[in-house]
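note to self — DONT lose this again. spent like an hour looking for the file last time. sequence + predicted structure for the chain T wanted, 298 res
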Amino acid sequence: MIEMVINGVSTRKIEDITQELCGETFSRATVSELCKNLDPTVKDFRNRPLNGIYPFLVIDALYIKVRDNHKVVSKSLLIAIGINSDGIREILGLHLSEAESENSWSDFFESLTNRGLQTPDLITSDNHKGLVKAIKKNFQGSQWQRCQTHFSRNILDKTPKSIQPQLKEDIRLIYESTNLGSAKMIKNQLLEKYIDKAPKAMELLDDAFDDIVTVLSFPIKYRKKLRTTNSIERLNQEIRRRERVIRIFPNDASVIRLLGALLMEHHEKWSTGRNYMDMTVYAMGKEKQLESGKEQVA
């Protein structure tokens, strides 16, 4: 029954299934009490030490409806995915907060570092102001990649509809550039092409350019998976599928319990499946950097 709940089977359907299979109906209250057995396991998962090296971090938030003091309120579920030195994805943590703010993200990041998370080389996220400030505050030395998918939506929102399709294709030329020099050249061409037709969009492009091409300083084979938050967005879709069954969580504990258990399952699948990335090239590059640093010191 617990497994059915985690995988999105409604309590009403569970009642029907248990009646059909067992000849006995288990009430929603009974199912809820059984699910509380998940709490120690989820707690251990959320508090486990992060002793490995995680060069890449992908972070995002989604909003969950929760009953709080007899009111239905929207709360933020903050999620962090790490890609470790073996190229395996891990769900590093989840954190429920009253709002997505600099303070809530900082609290989450502090909890991760207290568990052993070292400063990653690259962090990919959207451009939420509080989030970006928290990244700069808590992960000094990390590079930040602004999600290109989110940026495309942002710039098209500032573009007249008649030219949105063409600009959407042209922006991709920047994303697919092989190096920073060619990306800058394409940016300048786009500024010249669209400055009169979409001035606000071009102002955004000019301001955000450095943040959307950060990934170009990394090996080509890793860029596609690091330039967007798509990997975590697909995870969010699974969470939304589960959330639609519940619609409104009865309290904070139920959010952590059920969605934490769901994330644990995905974490297990990732850790036992194929590597998300082949980190050989990256490891060789880091080794060369280390050797170069030693030579300079000598």
